[in-house]
Amino acid sequence: MSTQVPEQQEEPTEAAAETETQIPSKGDARRAEKRRRAAERRAQKQAEEAERAAADEDTIELKVFRYDPEVEGKQEPRFDTFHVPFTKGMTVLDALMYARDTYDSSLTFRHSCRQAICGSDAMFVNGTQKLACKTQISELQEPIRVEPLPHAEVTKDLVIEMEHFYEQMHAVEPYFQTNELPDGELEEQRQSRENREKIKMSTRCIWCSACMSSCNIAAGDNEYLGPAAINKAYRFAMDEREGEDIKQKRLEIIEQEHGVWRCQTQFSCTEVCPKDIPLTEHIQELKREAVKNNLKFW
Amino acid sequence: MSQSYNRGLIEDFGRWREFSAGMWAWIFHKFTGWVLVGYLFTHIAVLSTAIPAAGQEAAVLQAGDDIYTQTIVTLEELLLVRILEVGLLAVAVFHILNGTRLLLIDLGIGLESQDKSFYASLILTGAITVASVPTFIAGAF
């Protein structure tokens, strides 16, 4: 199972030509020879590994999206197939890491904590946005197709450009603000239990952008804040400690043209959210808040 | 707010097999909405061309020889029109039921069972449509 592009096979001859033009020292030649033999060994080991995995009954087939704008032969997006031996409890991320460590070290994807907290490894697995470290292989149909999140620009392989998502998140001012400080200097700003319960789910967001990627509206309207950002706005707008004037400010942000009113309740975001945040419910509640805020009876 | 940069525009409808209930509800609601708008305009066009009937003598109206009656009778003779009427009923019923569902969603009621209410409106639409077939098709053949 070679994931190398043909262009790369020419490299050794190029390197040889280079050393010829310079004065070839014995050490250089020896090192080149050593490198060549190491590469050979690695290739052989990979081939053996691949053969073994293919022969083994309990392997899974992984089809991974590959794209690299910096290497000429990889600029055309393609799918690579990896056979990964299945172990009990294996997640998509585990399988990807096995493929990277065993077959192709250039396979690129984001991951960090591996326990659904950091939110780096949201991917498009078998047609839905999933957190790779939280998705069990045993629950998926083979072959497993792993793609970068849709509706975002791909930087390399499974890595997408997140800048736009972060900008939308920052646009709702996702931090605590208040004009109502307690009297005593060292006094805490306490939150009632009920209020904490109300915003509990919305605080779970891990900024993985799975919801944004699943949202049909966000795909067509690039200025739409998106479910994650609106959920952030909800988390603070519903926090009673922030006070009435800050809430007014927050409602102004979310009720603008590309705010909550873009949501057409397709429930895509709620369905893909790896932290089970009821995003649509929060967006709907903010819509009602916005209406109530602007309705005046006199 | 941030300036846009291209995220590869709109939904890829090629992956329709992976769409979930909420997405289908949205697509059907859009579709039925446009069909109803289209029907409304055809309806107005047909009726307005038959308007001279209003100026007819009472005797002509009685005999059913006026343009209005003639138009309707001619249309109803066509099997295609009969079938389209069944389709129109299906479209309208679904739009009404799903509209009610959306109304409830806007009020924050039953968001957890939004997929079930979509399936329910689909089934109900199917049932009502099937039940209407005898009425619409009667005498068309």
Description:
The complex is a heterodimer of chains A (298) and B (141). Chain A has helices at 11-21, 26-55, 92-102, 163-171, 193-200, 210-214, 216-220, 227-237, 244-254, 268-272, 279-294, and strands spanning 59-66, 78-85, 122-125, 128-131, 144-147, 154-156, 159-160. Chain A is α+β, with helices and mostly antiparallel strands and 298 residues long. Chain A folds into two domains: 45-151, Beta-grasp domain (Ubiquitin-like (UB roll)); 162-180 and 192-294, Alpha-helical ferredoxin (Fumarate Reductase Iron-sulfur Protein, Chain B, domain 2). Chain A has a five-stranded mixed β-sheet. In chain A, strands 6-7 form a two-stranded antiparallel sheet. In chain A, strand 3 and strand 4 (128-131) form a beta hairpin. Chain A is elongated. Chain B is an all-alpha fold. Chain B has one domain (21-137): 3 helical TM bundles of succinate and fumarate reductases, CATH 1.20.1300. Mean pLDDT of chain B is 83; it is low at 1-7. The A-B interface holds A 127-128, 150-153, 164, 167-168, 171, 216, 219-220, 222-223, 225, 256, 258, 264-268, 270-271, 278, 280-281, 284-285, 287-288 and B 1-2, 4-12, 15, 17-18, 20-23, 25-26, 102, 105-108, 111-112, 114-115.
Q: Main sheet of chain A: which strands, in order across?
A: 2-1-5-3-4
Helix amount of chain A, in percent?
A: 40-55%
What is the assigned CATH homologous superfamily of the largest domain in chain A?
Alpha-helical ferredoxin
Biggest sheet of chain B, in brief? Answer: none
- Unreliably modeled segments of chain B: 1-7
* Biggest beta sheet attributes of chain A: 5 strands, mixed
Q: What's the CATH first level of the largest domain in chain A?
A: Mainly Alpha
Count of helix runs of chain B: 5
